[in-house]
Amino acid sequence: MTSSLPSAATAARPAPFGERLAAAMAAHGPLCAGIDPHPGLLTAWGLSDDVEGLRSFALTVVDALGGRVAALKPQSALFERHGSAGVAVLEEVIAAARAAGTLTIVDAKRGDIGSTMAGYAQAYLQEGSPLAGDALTVSPYLGFGSLQPAIDLAAANGRGLFALCLTSNPEGAQVQHARTESGESVAALIAREAAAANAAELSAQGLTAGGLGSLGLVVGATIGDAARTTGVDLAAVRGPLLAPGVGAQGAGPAELAEVFGDAREQVLASSSRGVLGAGPDVRALLAAARRAADDAAQALRA
Hints:
Layout: H1 17-28, E1 31-35, H2 39-44, H3 51-65, E2 71-74, H4 76-80, H5 83-99, E3 103-110, H6 114-125, E4 135-138, H7 148-156, E5 160-166, H8 173-176, H9 186-204, E6 215-219, H10 226-229, H11 234-237, E7 241-244, H12 253-260, E8 267-271, H13 273-276, H14 282-301
Parallel strand pairs: 1-2, 1-8, 2-3, 3-4, 4-5, 5-6, 6-7, 7-8
Helix pairs in contact: 3-5, 3-14, 6-7, 12-14
């Protein structure tokens, strides 16, 4: 019996993720709206904390924002907590966003080695998999090279990755700011490896300058001078920077200039509760998303 999933070789490959994301940001603004069905938000929406409430919540967000924001980012853990039925809802959300013409970044932060990493890559990046959005968040803390199966499959299928680099949680600095034997910080190593992958991708497209690569980083907008003190050159990455904490969430023009410097045009602001708190009315959700996108755009341009 042959597999029902088309192979990377036979499936029609979309344009590179970086190219598609740049177009979406130009059309809709630099906002990625999270789909984070926390128990408290379900309750606030008048929904039950079960699969039916989860499904109603998540598909309402897609209905309100699909085709109107640059990207949607479902938080996989908050679907997985409902078991296999919750994962099935995540698959519905990914399919609904695709039908609405909106990019999805599956926030699963997967990271492992060898065949296990390859398995995660096939689940979230292989064309035809019901869990495959347009990009996946990954953890590089088993060594950046451990991500290679995901990097290869993402490239083969026109998908993208966002590797954790400089996060805003206090514990992150214990690993991200640590120094390797060469004296380079771990965060700088991750950024340098991402830059090399994007340079190769963009060079293959004939883009020696300009363009957005498909291997992005997660960089908190409220990390202050951490990029500078750890030696991270964000502009050199030439990839998208997924940034929680922009605009009304805490970081204004001065903070963004300190964190991102010349890389501000690469920033995709991530907002979850700031938008979702306006629900369940779809018009209110859309209005909140538009405000968040405008706030982010203004802060990043200043």
